[in-house]
Amino acid sequence: MNPEILNILDSFNSVRLEEMDKARLMDRIDTKYLLPANRVPDLLNLMKGRYRVLEVGKQRVSSYSTVYYDTAGFTFFNQHVTGRTGRFKVRFRTYNSTGNTFLEIKKKTKKGRTVKWRIENSPAGHFFDETAKEFIKTRAAFDPGSLGQVLENNFKRITFTGFDTPERITLDLDLTFRTPEGVIAELPMIAILELKSQGFAARSPFSVLIRQFSVYPTSFSKYCTGCAILYDLPLKGILKPKILLLNRIENEYNGSLSA
Q1: Separation between Cα atoms, residue 100 and residue 258, nearest integer Å
Q2: How far apart are CA 256 and CA 113, in angstroms?
Q3: What number of CA atoms fall less than 13 Å from residue 162's CA on the CB side?
């Protein structure tokens, strides 16, 4: 992690996990932004005094590990890239700062909201235990036996909450992807910011701050991006504009270093 980012984070007021859980925003509107990672210090300086940073065990940067599941035909991937409403994601996410692992199901509704359900649970090898199977059948109406591990994603996350606004902002850095066969892709130059709010992003103070960087909302899925990079899938071409955007951000990052 960039030492400059850590130094700036030290100047933020903190919020505890118990306080954050009072506004979990499990039913929300998600708005994402992509930024070159070396622009993050400038953004954080603008956020100081407006947002608090989550601190867990005296740590303000948390490590996350996620394992995504899909069918052999990549049903969830195909639903996502074709923009189908009512689409799902099924994943195990480990919050390394606390050691907790949850089975999480996310659904995108017809109204564009994201609904998330989760239970504390861990993979039983490459399979689901009975509790996990019942949870998947109940929430996603999907046969758990048809799902298998397709992608692992690791990243560092910093989480912010507004002083007076019911919103969260997550900042993800140091992304890596790995297939079950061990093929790896890394995106160290990309920062992913996500505004999680009850209302539309335009009403958020954060949307005003981020526009100063000529950055605007964009759809972005870690799962779909990782799959498009690491797998030869029939529908991956739909994500070509997103891959080009990533390349453009990486070029901006490298260009600023050589300037």
Answers
A1: 41
A2: 36
A3: 14
In sequence order, the β-bridge partners of residue 7 are none
Structure tokens at 49: 């005094």
Amino acid at position 146, single letter: S
Max intra-chain CA distance, the chain: 56
Q: Which two tokens stand for residue 91?
A: 């994943």
For domain 3-258, is the CATH number 2.40.320.10? Answer: yes
Helix extents (H) in the chain: 3-9, 17-20, 40-47, 75-81, 130-140, 205-211, 222-230, 240-258
pLDDT of residue 67: 96
Q: Please, are residues 115 and 107 in contact by the beta-carbon 8 Å criterion?
A: yes
Instruction: Write out the DSSP string of 240-259.
Output: HHHHHHHHHHHHHHHHHHH-
Helices (H) then strands (E): counts for the chain:
8, 11
Model confidence, pTM? 0.88
pLDDT for position 199: 57
Q: What is the CA radius of gyration of the chain?
A: 18
- Torsion angle of alpha carbons 182, 185, 191, 193, nearest 10°? -50
H or E segment at 61? none
Q: Profile the chain (259 residues) by mean pLDDT over runs of 10 residues.
A: 91 86 61 93 93 91 96 95 91 91 91 87 87 94 93 96 82 97 95 80 77 89 96 95 92 71
Domain ranges of the chain: 3-258
Token look-up 């526009």 returns: 211
